[in-house]
Design brief:
The protein is an alpha+beta fold. Helix content is 21%, strand content 31%. A hairpin with a 3-residue loop joins strand 3 and strand 4. Helix 2 runs parallel beside helix 8, helix 3 runs parallel beside helix 5 and helix 9 crosses helix 10. The radius of gyration is 29 Å and the shape is elongated.
């Protein structure tokens, strides 16, 4: 290896490029790494690596200098995929080395030289999902040497694909504990270093982000590589609904009356009552639900997304299709629960989320379309659409949101207080639920068992904790192209119905992990598998329901393993209340609905995230 310069400086204006396999140039140079010492820096197409040069103690001297032995052959590296910025910072001080003496004091000296800084990240040893910025400052007396290394790194970073250049940022100043603006100010330098243009809008009223996203033109939207929510799940949901309400044109899911009052075609509804199963004739829903068994980002103009007239989702001007190959959502947590961030990054840390964004990470996310057909039992049937990324709930969950609205002055603590008040009331509600049966080769025998009248497996056939397959980075379930759902316009499609009194009804799109429920509502729910997890909690004694809730709040608990709890994986469901009115909780927002239906779109949107690390 040729030395291209030393610390004292000299004629170092030429650095050799060594060709490997005639393709990838490798640059090597002796520089000083701040707070480390002299290193041999190697730059190749994958990243940087450096070896410490023994400059204080000679290799032939076996005795350690100052009682400290330097590992001259140790190597450190960082990949370009983990580097988000490089800066040339001109002339300044570089600490030659740091050595600790017996008293714990630092020894060494600093010298002035030309410098460039590499910005990247490293993972926490104890919490791999927690990312922390790291900075490496290299220096040399010769400016051309520094400039050449800087240019090479810049050129390599420019070749990294998938990173955003322009972002629209919404900041909720009152989100959570009112830290929205401070949170953005803390992470904004990361975006500046990465040379990402940001248009920042601090929301002044509820619904402002929805209004902006629902009215934005395709031409204006295509200027951005994504939209960022600095706030909680509510702000993300507002942005999501604003975009989808104007850009997604899709057929509605079936209404309860589509199959409950028709019996002309083949099919079957399994009516789940107290201890028996009754089979009834049902009408197949022909071509009404755009369920996505395996939507590809490259197949963003799939005819499954269409208007009521059956046309593809088109708009005047530049096109913006869904799923979108490039456009992504991002969330920098500053809310009360931040379930979206925890489920997609594995941690609730604004810096980690910012690093995911600037590095251009991508993960697909299922979205549920929730359609209200009637607000009350006497109101006119008129569809109203909401989109949910985390959870939709009725009964206990709806009552908690309604009750918490009275105590907004309490901040995030209002949810604990409202939850306690609702729990003490212990109200149950009469309702009917119908859901589309999911049938795969592995579960076909179990489904036949249900058809024959056995419900034991439906209630108790839940995976044990050791058998759960939680969603993780590079998840095989989410990336699989197979999808065990039936074609709802062919034979084998069945709608199963459960009716009775329920304490709560929930439909989880993802696991919904948060600080109150460390494993979430459904521990093995996935980000992009195309399923809803329908959780039906039937009326039961107060003590048993408390036991169920404590299992939710327990790490490693099993809240679904109760006789009064039904858990069904499905792609669509309908709901009809037997009361005068009912309130749903759709991603933390109140949604009054007497009659409602929902369906899931697999991988409809993409987020700047990777999924939780193992």
């Amino acid at each position: 290896m040729e030395r291209n310069g030393d610390f004292s400086g000299g004629d170092n204006k030429s650095l050799p490029d060594v060709q490997i396999n005639g393709e990838n140039p490798v640059l090597t140079s002796n520089l000083f790494l701040d707070h480390v010492g002299e290193v041999v820096l190697t730059i190749n197409s994958d990243g940087l690596s450096w070896n410490l040069v023994e400059s204080i103690c000679k290799e032939q001297d076996e005795s350690p200098c100052l009682g400290i032995k330097l590992a001259s052959k140790s190597e450190t590296a960082i990949k370009f995929s983990d580097v988000y910025a490089v800066e040339f910072i001109d002339w300044g001080l570089v600490q030659e080395s740091i050595l600790g003496n017996a008293r714990g004091c630092l020894l060494g000296h600093a010298s002035e030289m030309y410098r460039f800084t590499v910005h990247g990240f490293h993972r926490s040893k104890n919490q791999p999902s927690l990312w922390a910025p790291c900075v490496y400052t290299f220096g040399h007396k010769d400016m051309d040497t520094c400039q050449l290394c800087f240019n090479r790194i810049t050129a390599c970073l420019n070749m990294v694909t998938g990173r955003p250049k322009s972002l629209l940022v919404f900041v909720h100043p009152k989100s959570g504990k009112g830290n929205g603006c401070r949170t953005w100010e803390a992470v904004a330098p990361i975006f500046s270093r990465a040379k990402i243009k940001t248009k920042v809008m601090v929301t002044q009223r509820a619904g402002q982000a929805f209004d902006v996203m629902s009215s934005i033109t395709n031409e204006d939207l295509n200027v951005y590589d994504g939209v960022i929510a600095v706030g909680g799940d509510g702000l993300f949901n507002e942005i999501l609904n604003g975009l989808l309400s104007s850009k997604l044109k899709a057929s509605y899911p079936p209404t309860p009356t589509d199959f409950l009052h028709s019996g002309e075609k083949d099919g079957c509804i399994m009516l789940h009552e107290s201890n028996k199963t009754v089979a009834e004739a049902s009408d197949h829903i022909e071509d009404t639900s755009p369920l996505l068994p395996g939507a590809s980002l490259d197949d963003s103009r799939s005819p499954k997304f269409r208007t009521e007239e059956g046309c593809c989702n088109t708009d005047q001007g530049p096109s913006f299709s869904l799923p979108n190959k490039w456009f992504r959502f991002g969330v920098i947590p500053a809310g009360s629960t931040d379930a979206v961030v925890i489920c997609t990054t594995g941690t609730r840390d604004p810096v980690t989320s910012a690093l995911h964004i600037v590095l251009g990470k991508r993960v697909c996310l299922d979205i549920a379309q929730v359609v209200r057909w009637k607000t009350t039992s006497t109101s006119k049937e008129e569809p109203c659409i909401r989109y949910a990324a985390t959870f939709s709930g009725y009964g206990f969950y709806g009552d908690v949101i309604r009750e918490s609205e009275k105590y907004r002055w309490m901040g995030p603590k209002r949810y604990d207080y409202a939850g306690t008040m609702v729990f003490l009331r212990h109200r149950s509600y009469e309702a009917e639920i119908a859901y589309l049966e999911v049938k795969s080769e592995e579960s076909s025998s179990a489904s036949e068992e249900v058809i024959r009248g056995s419900r034991k497996r439906a209630l108790w056939g839940l995976p044990k904790n050791s058998e759960r397959k939680p969603c993780r980075i590079n998840c095989n379930v989410c990336t699989s192209t197979s999808h065990p759902m039936p074609a709802h316009n062919g034979e084998g499609s069945r709608w199963l119905q459960s009716k009775g009194r329920f304490l709560s009804i929930g439909a989880a799109v993802i696991s919904c992990r948060n600080e109150r429920a460390p494993d979430g509502l459904v521990a093995d729910a996935h980000l992009s598998d195309g399923f809803l997890h329908l959780i039906l909690v039937k009326d039961c004694p107060h003590a048993l329901y408390l036991w169920h809730l404590t299992q939710l709040a327990k790490k490693g608990g099993n809240p679904l393993n109760f006789a009064f709890v039904e858990h069904h994986k499905t792609t669509a469901f309908t709901f009809t209340s037997s009361g005068e009115e009912s309130v749903w909780n759709v991603d933390g927002e109140l949604f009054q609905a007497h009659k409602l239906s929902a369906q899931v779109f697999r991988g409809l949107v993409s987020l700047f995230a990777t999924g939780p690390e193992v």
